[in-house]
């Protein structure tokens, strides 16, 4: 999938797909009527289901709503945000968590108003340990001072424990599944793991479902 297709909410904000991302945004907001949503984690059961594309486009639509958003590539196994946004990944989240760089030194401004990016940085040998560290707790406090909302793109929940580690630190979690690809038992197992990690599962995004009479894909987000 090319960059234009990945960031359709930026390149074609009036398209049917972009409207579906806005619907997801609305459903997420309705899930937090009594509190302000500050952190959201996006994961999937396995690779190739669209979690990174979903994370990026949610970052765009929340920024378009007027929120100051930081999109964080927390997939320390297979980071992709730097490719999507055409950024350098020499330093990033891992640099902050290992105290090599300050947050402001490695945060990138995007060409979307209100949206900043934090790439993964060098791939570490111990991702789960970094995400569960005291330094990560400090990271949350720091980003909350600068941003209205932080969105984490995390590895597939069935592949590694990273997502489970981060889930109970975030206020909300979105699970992305791919129509016709994700097996039901894998989706259910992913939900069980997230529940065990005390994640607040806000909803599920059904990705790659073709709409009738259209070449677009249908994305659905709901409180399920």
- The percent range for strand residues is 15-25%
The beta-strand count equals: 8
Number of helical segments with 4 or more residues: 11
Q: Name the shape in a single word.
A: globular
Biggest beta-sheet profile: 8 strands, mixed
Give, in order, the helices and strands. HHHEHEHHHEEHHEHEHEE
Low-confidence stretches: 213-224
| Computed Rg | 16 Å
Q: What is the mean pLDDT?
A: 88
Oligomeric composition of the shown chains: single chain
Helix content: 25-40%
Order of adjacent strands in the largest pleated sheet? 3-4-2-5-1-6-7-8
Structural class: alpha/beta
Separation of the first and last Cα atoms = 28 Å
Your description of this structure?
The protein is of the alpha/beta class. The chain has 11 helices and 8 strands. The protein has helices spanning about 5, 10, 15-30, 50-65, 80-85, 95, 105, 125-130, 135-145, 160-165, 185-195; strands spanning about 40-45, 70-75, 110, 115-120, 150-155, 170-180, 200-210, 215-220. It has an 8-stranded mixed β-sheet, with helices on both faces. Strand 6 (about 170-180), helix 11 (about 185-195) and strand 7 form a beta-alpha-beta unit. It is globular.
